[in-house]
Amino acid sequence: MIHSPAPLPDPLQExxxxxxxxxxxxxxxxxxAAQDPATxxxxxxxxxxxxxxxxxxxxxxxxxxxxxxxxLYVSPLxxxxxxxxxxxxxxxxxxxxxxxxEDRTGDTSASARKRQRADPPHILLTTPESLALLLxxxxxxRIFAGLQRVVVDEIHALAESKxxxxxxxxxxxxxxxxxxxxRVGLSATVEDPxxxxxxxxxxxxxxxxxxxxxxxxxxxxxxxxxxxxxxxGGGGRYxxxxxLEAIEAHRTTLIFHNxxxxxxxxxxxxxxxxxxxxxxxxxxxxxxxxxxxRVEDAxxxxxxxxxxxxxxxxxxxxWGDVDLVIQVGAPKNIKRLVQRIGRANHxxxxxxxxxxxxxxxxxxxxxxxxxxxxxxxxxxGEPRGDGPRDVLCQHILIAACAGPFHADAxxxxxxxxxxxxxxxxxxxxxxxxxxxxGGYALRSYDRWQRLVQRPDGLWQLRDPRAARQIxxxxxxxxxxxxxxxxxxxxxxxxxxxxxxxxxATLTPGDTFLIxxxxxxxxxxxxxxxxxxxxGGTTPKIATFMGTKFATSxxxxxxxxxxxxxxxxPRLPGHTRDxxxxxxxxxxxxxxxxxxxxxxPYDGRPHTCIYGFAGRNAMQTLGLLVTQKMExxxxxxxxxxxxDYAVLVWSVDPIDDPAPLFxxxxxxAGFETWLAGNAVMKRTFKASAVISxxxxxxxxxxxxxxRQATFSSDILYDTLRKYDPDHLLLQITRxxxxxxxxxxGRIEDMIIRTRGRVDHVQLGRVTPLAAPLMLxxxxxPVKGAGQERILAxxxxxxxxxxxxxx
Amino acid sequence: xxxxxxxxxxxxxxxxxxxxxxxxxxxxxxxxxxxxxxxxRVARRTGNILPPYDGHETLARLxxxxxxxxxxxxxCLGDSFDDISAAAQLPTELNDWLARLITVRDWVxxxxxxxxxxxxxxxxxxxxxxIGPLHxxxxxxxxxxxxxxxxxxxxxxFGFKGGTVSRACFLIDSQRIVMPAYGTYTGGLWTTDPVxxxxxxxxxxxxxxxxxxxxxxxxxxRSHPRTRTLxxxxxxxx
Lengths: 805, 238
Description:
Chain A has 805 residues and is α/β, with parallel strands linked by helices. Helix content of chain A is 41%, strand content 16%. Chain A: InterPro entries: ATP-dep_Helicase, DEAD/DEAH_box_helicase_dom, DEXH_lig_assoc, Helicase_ATP-bd, Helicase_C-like, Lhr-like, Lhr-like_DEAD/DEAH_assoc, Lhr_WH_dom.
């Protein structure tokens, strides 16, 4: 379908003219493609992407004013919805367009939501979760009557998580309500636009992909730091003087970190070194909304010279003034790096400027590999698997809340979603059965089914009151259990939140960092951690929730390729020498072989396995290998894992490592290991909540104490023992192939190396293994050894307390 | 079998890692808060359909403890059933299994707050029981000596160099024993809860259940929010 350029209605064209603005070519292209059933726009940050999505809506509503909902906009961020509303108000007000725009998120007041249901605006801005909630109401068909367009913003980010799957299932339902619904996706640069297009479109219909001019090549390099990076660690704090200089030399700098804890530590030290008192802020997802809003507002007002941040600023408001992005720590993922670089977009058509700060020597190698990839324009990305079934279970329950449904019709809708296109009827029925009866081998809930089939064949809730509970559990975001942190005293300022497990380790007087300040733990009140400002000098490191990314497959491949070079002229001297030394003393790891080094250290045998499978998979490998060592009686004591290697220490040495890495054996070990592993249990818990087996634990609910919660660990153990083929265990195993367990990458490693194991036995630590000795995240092996340590600790305590042992 | 042996009011007792209390001299095994029928009650009242195997799991552990100790006498310390209706609707196979265990022993059901009154199962029923120097009842009385009770489902968190565990536990001082819950889907009350802190003497110990019965001083410092979550009597791989 090729159209001649679609004209804009007069008021809109005149408004543009009055401003002296012309449309970007991709904005015109979006207008031209307005009638397509599905369109995907790929455009860099700052390219007026969002306006491109709304232009056809503004044009249609101006040309033919009408009542009722016309366009639904869905974004992953609540803040983005509110920001877009403000941005749309300007042309609407100034051009006098007859259009009402409102946002609807978790922050919208109950009265506003009620009004929106009764009288929807022309344009509704919302999130996947709020949309799912809207669709769970009986009056959903009335709310969405007449809907013409849906705009999915930042679809590349949504497509990486279950939130996107939930959204696409919601769109399938919307499409059934409004058959003429047109879909628009807005995406940052991605490696495979067609995959996103298939993800967005009504399957198997085509989707037009529009590529905006990507703009000039970014100016990207390592930050020039006179000091060499340390051997291990992730802070990048050695670079603070150079970072301060860079901040001073630019208007506004974003300083990205990979984890919230690192951002806190860096910010703290940056502030101490900030002798010129440059205005610098900190922003991450564990800070209170008040804190984040304050920083965002200061940023918009141009009051800040720099923000230390995490992925919380990967998406969202385009801050026009950012002219430098600094990435501290290895970028882990080329695509994300490119997207972050795009945040420095002070002028469209001016090159973005970014500098990398490797936190240690190994990261220096990784940063070089990433820079090469960016210059060559290659991106990484793991292909998406099939749509997860726990999200489908939730979708079925939501459908039941809206009213009785026909299984055939719902199945047809679900398979119109790209990610669920290959789902067969049997698979769907298993999910429906799970929602209805629990799907247990032991059929024991005949009287208390959740969904029942009526004589006319439709499915409905047994007890309509259950709808309330299902609605409360909508969503696929898993909050780790966190506790709010607040200054002590009446009306003490909220600071943010920390993980409950971290809070449990605190005793009054302990200090930790949050929001850039050292606070002193005073005690727990209700569900809040109370702190005071009396800070000490050596704070504990708070553990925050938040994703920890593994280095992508593509990036590790590039690093392994780099190792095959004879020399590394572009690397700094210290790093070059380090790699040469490693090659002389041992070997450098290769992609098609598995290097394993054994050596004594500190009186114990150590073994380092260079698996290069990313930190999650390497962590899993550490657990599997130590379990196998325990079986062999080698007395494993602990291990530490990085993106590249896992280091294991034990009572007895590993003489022949080859049998440890035989695929079948490892897979069998994996199955057994499923039994007791904590990471596996966390994976199960997430699916149990999403699929509606157990309730989400909201802090409010816990406070009342009335809502009893179940230990998902016990449910998991029980299911494994009595119903090992249960749907939820199948889902858990599927999930374990990626994510935190990432077993899929271990299998890739085994296939890649095919039993070609190089075992190097040496008298001392090798250069490449040395940094691992300094890694702080050491995991003790919880085997017979741990029980022994526990018993010793307990006896000591009993004795100290003067109690009879 | 590993256990924690102690003498309480002259009785030589053993706290077993499963959460049962074994009194060899009386050939008596005491378990508390079995909560049979919990998953069904949850389905009935909330709509959550949990794996319906909690009864099997609880009974399997009880069977194993009985086989191991060859106990001739059993005391169930109340809240054996999640409610009266759960007791009436126990699946036939569990009912038969339980009946097989009961008939060859002297079996006493103590009443609990979840299951007052007589139940339709063999065995004797009583509001409380006295055996030798010890009083067995469901809920602890404030002024008492030599009492064994249940009800609170105590659990303790223990941090040591190398890890932290949280496990269901016995609480023991010179005057009373508070039993852990034996049922599979049962939660717990932290030992730091004011109720338990007030109930137990300052020198009370907690015996952790799990792989080993392990005694520690009763944790009293509240470093964890006061929540009552339901969890197992025995938590492995914690």
